[in-house]
Every structure is written in C-alpha cells, then in structure tokens.
Specification:
The complex is a heterodimer of chains A (372) and B (524). Chain A is of the alpha+beta class. Chain A contains 10 helices and 10 strands. In chain A, helix 2 runs antiparallel to helix 3, helix 6 crosses helix 9 and helix 9 packs across helix 10. In chain A, 37% of the residues are buried. The longest helix of chain B is centred in the N-terminal third of the chain and has 36 residues. Chain B has 524 residues and is mostly helical. Classes of the chains: A alpha+beta (372), B mainly alpha (524). The interface between A and B is large, with 104 and 100 residues.
C-alpha cells in the first residue's frame, strides 16, 4: 500500500497545481445589489463556521486514526458514555445555530419585502422564452435565445456568451427598486439571475413576486432554473442595467418601434414579403421544436416539411398556430403571443420555405377575422 | 452454538430457478434484494455516464435534450427506488432475524411477494424508454404540470412508482412486526443492535411516507387522463400542491435512505475500534428525533415557490434544528473511535469514508437550510453536489461497508482485502473528483438538469465527467471482488472481526446456516 499512497499523493498534488494555475470561479459571484452582498456575507459566515467545526471534529478523528490504532499497540478503552460531554455537544450547536439564524432572518425579511417598488415588470415564462411586460411604461416584448443553433450543434465556433445571449434583453434603470412579478403560460419556470441575487419560480395561473435594486450598470446574465421541458437549458435571461437617462431613451424607442407589428389593412402582402418577415418569427418562436430546416422531432414534434397541416388547408394551419393543438399539448396556442402580422408571416413562411412551396399566403386581415 | 440445528432441508424446497421464485427464506430473499439492487445500480450508473458524457464539453454532442431529461429522470428514480432502497431492505432481510435471534421474518410469504414486485417495477422503468415519445423527461421529482405534457412513458413511470411503493410498504410491515414480536428472550428494545433500531424507525417512516407519494402520482395520473385539475390553476387546482405532497414524502425519503446507513455504520465502527458504540441511548433518541423532524421540514425544498415569509422562516428554523441530532451522531461515532484499538480493513475504510463525506454533505445541507443562501443555490449544481454527498458517499458507501463486513458471515468466504482497499481508494478519489467540483459550478450559477451550458462552466464539467467514468469503472472492480469471493474466496474464520459482538457473530457459525435460530438464544 506504500507505493499506492505515494501515487495518490502525487496525483492529488498535480490536480491541485492544475487548479491553481487557471482562473476558476470557486465562490458565489460578487453580488451587484445590497441584498446580494448580505447573502454573500451570510454564505461566508456559514462557511467559516462549518470549516472550523469540520477541522475540529476531523482533527479528533484523524488524531485517533493515527494514535489509537492496533498497529501502534494502542489498547482499547471501554468507556461508552459520558453524560456531560453528550449534553455539551448537544447544547453548543444550538447556540451556534441561533447565531446563524439571526443574520439569515434579517436577510430573508429584506429579501421578501417587495413593498414600495420604483417600477414593476411582469415576467412570464413560456416554453421556451421569457415575456416581459413593463406595467408602468407600457412596454411589452419577448426575449428568446440568440445563440445560433449551429453553435449548439458544434458546426460553428461558440461565441463568448454562448447560451447566455438573447435577442431582446430586459432593460432596467440603475439604483431603482425593480419589482418582478412572475407567472408562466404552460409549465413551471424560474427566473434566476445570480449576480442580482434573484430566483423566483414562475407558476402557471399564479403570480409571485421578488425584487432587486442594481447598484451598478452592466449586463447580468442568468437562466431558467426550473426544469420546463426539452429546451430548459436554452432560455437565458439577460438584464441590462443602464443609467436613468438611457432607460428613458430606451423606453421611448420601444414605444415608437411598437408600430412595427402593425400592418396596412388596405394592402395585400405578397408571398415573398410575408415569407421574408416570417423567417424571424419562426426563429424566435418555432425553431426549438420544429428545427431550423423544418424536420421536427417526430413523433412529439412533427415535421413541417411536407407536414399534414403545413401543406394541408391553410385554415387548419392558421387554427393550430392561433389556438394550439387539442391532441398534442406540446403545441402551444400562439394567438395571445403574436400579432396578426406575425402570424400571417410565419404561416406563409412555413408554407413557402423549409422545403415547402405551396405558393399560397395568409393576410393579416384574415388572422384578425379568425380571432374573434 | 446450541441454538443451531443442522437439519437437511434440501428435500423440501425446489432447486434451480424455482428455489428463488418460491423461496420464503429471509437469507435467499435478502440475497435477491442485494443482487437486484446491484443490477439497478449498474443500469442507473450507465444513465449517469450518459449524462456526464453529454456534459463533458459545451454543445450537444451525444444525445438530444429530451433524451437527456429522460436520463436525469430515470437515473434518479432507479438509483433511489431501485438501487439504494432495495439494498438496505436486503441488509434488513439478512441481518434483522439473525441480529435479534429470530428464525426468519414474521411474514415469509409476504416477504417473497415484496421482493418479486421489484423486477416488474424496474422493468417498467426501463421499458418506458422504448414507448413512443420515450420515457418521462420531468426529473425524479415529477413536478406538475410538466408531467401532463408527457407521453405514455410517464404512465409507465407512475405505475412503476405505485408498485415500488407497495413493495416498500409490505417490506416495512414485515420489518416492524419482526422486530416487535420475534426478538429472542432477554433482548429488550434498548439491547437491540443499532442497525435493528434504525430499521424499525425507517420502516415507520416508509409506512407513513410511501402512501403520500402514491397519492401524488395518482393525482398526476388522473390529471393526465381523467379530467381532474388537482395541479391545474385553470380548473381550481395548484401546481405547487404537487410539490407540497411530493416533498412531504420526499424529505422523509431522504432519511429512509440515510437512517439504515447510520445503522450499518454504527455496527462497523465499534467492531473495528474494538470498543462499544459511544452513547447508544443518545443514538437511538437522535435517530428518532431525526425521523420526527423529517416530517416537519419538507418545504425547505421549495424556498423559491413564493411561500409567505412566515412559512419560510419556520421551515428555515426547523431545518437548522436537524443539525443538532445529526451532529450528535457524528460526535458519537468519532467518540467511539477515540481511544479504541483500530484496524482498517475495507469495511472500516468505507465507514470512515462515510463519516467524513456524509458530514461534508451535512454541512452543505446547513448552508442550503439558510433560505437567503438557498435562493441563490436552489436548483443549481450545488444541490446536486450536496445530495450526492449524502446519497453516494453516505448511503452507498455505507452499503459497501455493510457488504464487506457481513459477506464472510453470508457466504463463509473472505473477499480479497487488497482489492477491497483498491475499491475504497478508487471510489473515494473519483467520487470527490466527480462531485466536489460541482459545488463550484453551483456557486457560479449553473442550473441543474440542463444538457448544455455556457463556456464559463466548461472546465469543472470536464473534471466532473472524468471523475464519473473513473467512479463507474471502479464499481466493476467491486463486482469482480464479489464474484471472486463467492467462487474462490479463502474460507472465512468463524469470527473474522475481533470487535463484532452481535448475535450473528457470537451465536451462529460461519457461514450462517440456511435456517438459523429455530430455537431462540437467550440474551443476558
């Protein structure tokens, strides 16, 4: 066993050297909110306590292992109880725990105090994207994964923010108490941004709340933290914390851009116009299941290329996008999420791209008529 | 040895396969439980390696996300219900009658049925991968309403859980009845070996907790097929209700796994320290307190669902309280070793490995008990690391200690001590390589149950995957050691361990005869 333990020591030493030579994130990320700092300090405190106890208890154990062994001729004692000692090691931990419970309670009460916010944002979890609605500023949008599929499949080099980048980040002003209301459209999700010390489950049919107040500007990234189906690992959260002025400019931009989803009711859009507008909608809302090339993942996620619905009557196609599938719960209803123009575009896209070429199109007016 | 009668019973029970199908002998049934558990351990282990292969580097290389989710689900269910729980029921079957001086379990035929429910349940779990849509990709916790979206694989999983629950309940009724009624004259409750005590307490936990799980999955089933809305807000239900019901079962379940492990360790450490267990009575009381507390803390698994802050405070304080009896147990084990005359054969090595790493898992449990910290770490790899320290370095290492400890008594042959030590050192090194780094991943914010991750997590995931393969391969060595011992092991001495003092070592020959204690021994 001698040679073996030497080998063991060498392997451990090499591993430690390897770890020390590179930069590794070994602790909680430094928080960007006052509450996050309190959590960070609480974690440090509990780590110090358990390290001290660990060293104490296992100091005794390893001393015994080396000194009270048969091979060094130690004779076994015969004691098997000691009431004083047993009371002492029951009572002392109680006091340590009370010492820990005090700062933990303080931080928890602070964490759950969502009163008097400066602004409120409603966050809705969808399979698989986030919807944001600024209740005070009348801004509303969806935020989905921006990492291209070929990076995930290994066909392209992975970017710096691989899997942690979105098409439209959440933008909030610095130094303001932002109250987040969470809910979900389909299954459970959880809104989690480590550096803002926020994690709150999003529950379909219920509204929960949490809050944060960022101390500095910057971009903070997080992810969905509650298993929500196959794309659970692919619905990141990006929060841009900006100055108050920048925030005002951003809100104004959003309001003027809000008209983009509008359409000209008098105009008949061509197949080519709708198809090219539909590609972006498809990539944001459909691609996770039906795949970039429309091949789907049968049987749960049917192929659109040559598909029964995507090459069948257009009214059925519109119906399933608008209202979801009655047979397959995985096909969500997009009526509430997408505008008339977006639905017209994506349906036309699916019929005239992805290997289909039916040549027909859906006009936004027809979507509006089908909604009623 | 006067209690032993060397009857030849070979004429009155079948041989070959029918012996195992029809057996009512607690030793045969214990053996079947242990082999079944080992087989499931291998199946669940392969699933873990598929998970770790996909996570070896960023990007999707080997499996698709939905299959990945099925792997995390089945790995969890198979390891908890198929591997760890049956392993300790196997120990209970072999050891409880011998340790209390009983001829067999109280209900031998029900014992047969308890075991034979397991293979169909295990088969259903594995089979669920091969139905259209595959198995359930919902995590072993089976949270609603994701379960409603699943294909028929989910129904097979639900049915398997029902069967496993029936098996556990029957096994527990048998264990309680055996312990309360079949003890040898003179063996009062407070003279029972601690392993027997821990199983008595565990059996009560099982009887109380398993029907709750059965209820939860039945409600899932009716929500899926029969138009109920227990977990659907649109019909007046609540998805969080599922979590409350699940964890009312799920937290006691943690102790259902851990408490028999405490029992094994409480036999092994005194035997190799050549010194009686320190604080026997306080061990019994601590175990009972842990069991009672385990029913009062379930919502600490749900700190982020948005409970009222008062409820969060209560669950935080109650959870922290569990550290007290758990601490008492650890101090008692160390005090047992203190001033002993220790030797370090394989069972003792695994027991010390258990003590060291289980305590580490207990410490991270204290970190997670603090609600504000847990909100950061909930559903991250920190939690994955935490519960693998308790489940693998805790329960599994304890099971290894138990197998090496009692194998000579069971088969009358010794295992290869050198290979046993190799098994221990390889297991403990690769275990830590796999799971210690996952603490760092969790602290940095890597969520659990994701098939792909951002580049910041790449290095530790690679280390963890290498460790996992090392750990998995080390278990093949364990299989080899077992086969070698059974086939060509050296004949075991009557009492290979100096300090072992329970009835199976002091009153029965080695190997233990097929029928033991037909006349009960008298315990002074």
């Amino acid at each position: 066993m001698k040679a073996f333990s030497r080998l063991l020591f060498l392997a451990t030493a090499m591993l430690m050297a390897g770890l020390a030579s590179a930069e590794y994130q070994l602790n909680l990320k430094p928080a960007k909110t006052a509450l996050g700092e309190a959590v960070y300090d609480l974690h440090t405190l509990v780590m110090i306590i358990i390290t001290v106890i660990f060293i104490g208890v296992f100091g005794f154990m390893f001393y015994a292992i080396f000194k009270h062994r048969k091979s060094v001729g130690h004779q076994a004692a015969h004691f098997h109880e000691n009431t004083t000692v047993e009371i002492v090691w029951t009572v002392i931990p109680v006091f340590i725990l009370i010492g820990l419970a005090w700062p933990a309670t303080k931080a928890l009460l602070e964490m759950r105090d969502t009163s008097a916010p400066d602004m409120t944002i409603k966050v809705t979890g969808y399979q698989w994207k986030w919807g944001y609605e600024y209740l005070d500023d009348d801004v509303k949008f969806y935020s989905s994964l921006a990492t291209p599929r070929d990076q995930i499949q290994g066909d392209a080099e992975k970017g710096e923010h691989y899997l942690l980048e979105v098409d439209k980040p959440l933008v909030v002003p610095v130094g303001k108490k932002v109250r987040i209301l969470t809910t979900a459209n389909d299954v459970l999700h959880a809104w989690y941004v480590p550096e803002l010390a926020v994690k709150q489950d999003a529950i379909p049919g219920f509204i929960r709340d949490t809050w944060f107040q960022a101390e500095e500007t910057g971009t903070f990234r997080g992810q969905c933290a509650e298993l929500c189906g196959k794309e659970h690992g692919f619905m990141p959260i990006v929060v841009n914390v900006v100055s108050e002025d920048d925030y005002k400019i951003w809100v104004a931009e959003q309001k003027s851009a809000g008209g983009a989803a509008a359409y000209d009711p008098g105009k008949t859009y061509s197949v080519a116009e709708l198809t090219s507008a539909g590609e972006a909608v498809y990539k944001a809302h459909c691609v996770a299941c039906h795949q970039p090339n429309g091949s789907g993942m049968p049987p749960t996620f049917p192929a659109l290329t040559g598909g029964m619905i995507s090459t069948g009557p257009i009214a059925n196609h519109l119906d399933i996008v608008l209202n979801g599938s009655k047979k397959n719960p995985m096909m969500a209803a997009f009526g509430a999420q997408l505008s008339d123009m977006e639905i017209a575009a994506v349906v036309t896209y699916e019929r005239n791209a992805l290997g289909n070429s039916l040549g027909d199109s859906l006009q936004p007016g027809e979507v509006a008529a089908a909604r009623k | 040895m006067e209690a032993v009668h060397e009857h030849d019973h070979s004429h009155d029970h079948p041989t070959g396969l029918m012996r195992w199908v029809t057996t009512t002998n607690h030793k045969d049934i214990g053996t079947m439980y242990l082999w079944f558990s080992f087989a499931m351990f291998m199946v669940g282990g392969v699933m873990a390696l598929i998970i770790r292969t996909e996570l070896f580097q960023p990007g999707l290389q080997v499996v698709q996300p939905e299959f990945f989710n099925q792997m995390t689900t089945l790995h969890g269910l198979i390891m908890v219900f198929g591997a760890i729980m049956p392993a300790f029921v196997g120990f209970a079957n072999w050891q409880i009658p011998m340790m209390i001086g009983a001829p067999d379990m109280a209900f031998p035929r029900m014992n047969n049925w308890s075991f034979w429910l397991l293979p169909p349940a295990g088969t259903l779990l594995v089979l669920s991968m091969f139905v259209p849509g595959g198995s359930a990709g919902v995590g072993w916790t089976m949270y609603a309403p994701l379960t409603v979206q699943q294909g028929m694989g989910m129904d097979l999983v639900i049915f398997a859980v029902h069967i496993l629950g029936m098996s556990s309940i029957m096994g527990s009724i048998n264990i309680v009845t055996t312990i309360l009624n079949l003890r040898a004259p003179g063996m009062t409750m407070m003279k029972m070996p601690l392993f027997v005590w821990t199983w008595l307490i565990t059996a009560y936990l099982l009887i109380a907790a398993m029907p709750v799980l059965a209820g939860a999955v039945t409600m899932t089933l009716t929500d899926r097929h029969f138009g109920t809305h227990f977990f659907n807000a649109a019909g007046g239900g609540d998805p969080v209700l599922f979590q409350h019901i699940f964890w009312f079962f799920g937290h006691p379940e943690v102790y259902i796994i851990a408490i028999p492990a405490f029992g094994v360790i409480s036999q092994v450490i005194p035997a190799f320290s050549r010194k009686p267990l320190f604080g026997y009575a306080s061990m019994v009381y601590a175990t009972a307190s842990i069991a009672i507390l385990s029913f009062l803390v379930w919502a600490h698994h749900m700190y982020t669902v948005g409970m009222p802050v008062e409820a969060q405070l209560y669950y935080m304080f109650a959870t922290m309280l569990i550290a007290v009896p758990t601490g008492v147990k650890v101090f008692n084990w160390v005090a047992t070793m203190w001033k002993g005359s220790m030797t370090f054969e394989t069972p003792m090595l695994f027991a010390i490995g258990f003590l060291f790493l289980f305590t580490l898992g207990g410490f991270t449990g204290l970190v997670l008990a603090l609600t504000p910290v847990d909100v950061q770490l909930h559903d991250t790899y920190y939690v994955v690391a935490h519960f693998h320290y308790v489940m693998v370095a805790g329960a599994l290492f304890s099971a290894f200690a138990g197998v090496y400890f009692w194998l000579p008594k069971w088969i009358g042959k010794m295992y290869d001590e050198t290979l046993g030590k190799w098994h221990f050192w390889l297991s403990i090194i690769f275990f830590n390589l796999t799971f210690f780094v996952q603490h760092f991943l969790g602290l940095a914010g890597m969520p659990r149950r994701i098939p792909d991750y951002s580049l910041q997590f790449a290095d530790f995931n690679m280390i963890s995957s290498i460790g996992a393969f090392g750990f998995g391969l080390s278990q093949l060595l364990f299989l080899y050691i077992l086969i070698k011992a059974i086939r060509s092991g050296e004949k075991a001495p009557e009492k290979p361990w100096d300090g072992a003092d329970t009835l199976e070592w002091t009153h029965l020959p080695t190997p233990a005869p097929y029928h033991s204690f037909e006349t009960p021994p008298t315990v002074k």
